[in-house]
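sorry for the late reply, my laptop died twice this morning and i had to redo everyting from scratch. anyway the thing you sent over, i finally got around to it. pasting the sequence first so we're on the same page, its 206 residues, then the predicted structure underneath. double check i copied it right bc i was rushing
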Amino acid sequence: MTEKTAPPPGPSDSHRARSQRHKEIVDARIAAATQQRGVILVHTGNGKGKSSAAFGMMARALGHNMRVGVVQFIKGSFSTGEETFFRRFPEVEYHVMGEGYTWETQDRERDVAKAQAAWQVAHNMLRNHQLQLVVLDEINIALKLHYIDTAQVLDALRNRPALQHVVLTGRAAPNALIEMADTVTEMRPIKHAFDAGIQAQHGIEL
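ok and here's the structure:
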C-alpha cells in the first residue's frame, strides 16, 4: 500500500499562518497597554480633514454618554453644519470664538484679542472635571501666529483632569505640542476639489 503524502501548503494555509502571527502580535500589544488616562491628540498638516476628524471623535464620545466642550479659535464668520448639529446636544458646550480667517479680518490686534478670549474659555474647560473630551479647533493657527502663548497652553494641558481627552487641530502645530501629545496625525494633501475650481460644499466643507 502506497502512503499518501500531505499536499503542500496552499494559499489558504499561508494566509492562515500569517493571520495567526499577526493576531499574536496584536494581542500582545493590547495586553501590554495597561494605562488608562486622558490622551492628547493633535491633528495638523496642510490637508483637509483635521477638524472633521475631531468632530467625528465628538460623535463617538456622545455615543458613550460623555460630556464634550468645543472652542473654535479662527472659524466663526459663517455657520457650519457641525455647529448646527452639535448644538442640539445638551451634553455639548460649544463656543465659536473667531471671526474668520486672518486674511479676511486683516486686524491683528482684534484677532489677538479674540484668540485670548477664546483661550480663557478653553482654559476653563481644561479645568472642568465634568468634560471628558475637549476639542480646541484651529488652536494651532493661533499658536503659530503667537496670538496665545504656547507655554501657557502646554501647562494647562499638563494640569488638566487626569481622564480628560483633548484634541487640538490646525496647521503648523508647534514642535513642543507635538512632543507632548500622545497621538499626532498629519493630514497631507494629494488632491482637493477647490484646486479644480469647485466651491466649498455643504456637508463636505461647510
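DSSP finds eight helices and six strands in the chain.
thats about all i looked at so far, will dig more tmrw
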